[in-house]
Amino acid sequence: MKMVSMSVGMPSISKCFLFNTGLRTPTTRYSVNCTLKLSLSASVTNMALPNTTNRKLPILLFDIMDTLVRDPFYEDVPAFFGMSFKELIDCKHPTAWLEFEKGSIDEMELARIFFKDGRDFDLEGLKTCMRNGYSYIDGIEQLLFTLKQNNFEMHAFTNYPTWYQLIEDKLKLSTYLSWTFCSCTHGKRKPDTEFYMEALRHLKVDPASCIFVDDRKRNVEAATEVGIRGVQFKNVNLLREELSLMGVDISIGQDR
Questions:
Q1: Would you place residue 253 in the very low, low, confident or very high pLDDT band (cuts 50, 70, 90)?
Q2: HSE-CB for 234 with a 13 A CA cutoff
């Protein structure tokens, strides 16, 4: 595989603290940047792509927190520590969570260095707090169900640590998508350009054959810079409209 060198984006500040295919009946933003860097275009052009005649396209890549799943960091976690959100930000270690997301440290090391003053806290209690706070964003599970019914290939593309398993245990996201691209298993975080390129190499498709959805504008911009079509998530209705305009079948008749 011939590759062209490319610049790597700097990670953004984390917004959060932190496969099976069976279907089940569900219980109940849009700024697209089309900039394509020349060097990245050349890199993708030189990728060896397989015959995708029988593969349904586009492939959908989803951010998880505050795109598919409510993030408990902003309300639940400060309450757990008996702090305001600002107080929590002021006293936590500035990079511990980022290192945890990239898999550079485990949860025991996270607990040891999480607070700048080294104070102890109930790690298992925090994990329970997080688990209790996870829920689908309104309307998202119905959309995922429809996309799955219509045979679209879907993958998580997320900055999250090994605690993504807490989300899976509660919400069973693998009913709809695969936890393929997690920062903790790849050692990279969005908007690092190489993380996006690694996903393309893994999927073996042209970048234009992928659509990436994320609530963070910078992450969407990073995707469009390598040729992936991007959608900034704002709410499920706008997401439905944007996906439909991009040729994704979200026929209401398939909803159940």
A1: low
A2: 10
At 90 the three-state DSSP class reads helix
Comparing 8 with 165, the larger pLDDT belongs to 165
Extract the tokens encoding 178: 């695969």
Quick one: pLDDT at residue 251? 87
For 68, phi then psi, to 5°, come to -110, -35
User: Domain residues of the chain, as ranges?
Assistant: 38-70+136-254, 76-133
Residues of the chain with pLDDT > 90, as a percent, come to 76
Q: How many whole angstroms separate alpha carbon 14 and alpha carbon 33?
A: 22
SS3 196: helix
Three-state SS at 102 = coil
- Look up residue 232 and give its amino acid: Q
Per the CB < 8 A criterion, the answer to whether 131 and 6 are in contact is no
In degrees, rounded to 5, the angle at the alpha carbon of residue 94 between the alpha carbons of residues 212 and 96 is 75
Cα distance between residue 173 and residue 68, in whole Å: 9
Q: Can you identify the CATH homologous superfamily of domain 38-70+136-254? A: HAD superfamily/HAD-like (3.40.50.1000)
Q: What pLDDT, on the 0 to 100 scale, is given for residue 145?
A: 97
User: Quick one: average pLDDT of 79-99?
Assistant: 96
Cα dihedral across residues 179, 181, 187, 189: positive or negative: negative
What sign does the CA torsion over 224, 230, 231, 232 have? negative
